[in-house]
Amino acid sequence: MSGSDAGTLAETYLAAVQHDLVDLSGEETLVGVVRRPTRWFSGAVDENRPELGPPGELLDEVKARHEDLKARGLCDEGAHNAAWEDVDFERRYREHLAESENARAAIEDLAERVGSGEDVVLVCFEGEKKACHRHALREIVAREV
Questions:
Q1: DUF488 domain location, by residue (predicted)?
Q2: Which of 28, 88, 103, 113 would bridge with 119, disulfide CB 3.0–4.6 Å?
């Protein structure tokens, strides 16, 4: 499906969009990939695909580990990234994407859209210095374009 008509696939985080920290033309479709969006998140993106967010159990597990590590004195970013590693987040997230019929359909949809010329930006909450599922998701969608 790849060709000269293909659009672009990028990723960023919500605060970067809200505070103009990312270079956007305004023509991109901002696609949230958040399992549990807030009202203000939903208002900042063009659409949200919760099926592409990490499963709730995985989010809960990493959050609990993150809080434990912060209580032990790690900074927020350090605790987040250590918790991500401790719960084997990326491997488990990739497994979820491979096994979930809804996630597979959403990935195929995004790949088709980018392949047809749409510029898509994947958006979630985590800033640049925190491990984030959107990096893996971008790689997976890009392979299918």
A1: 25-142
A2: 28
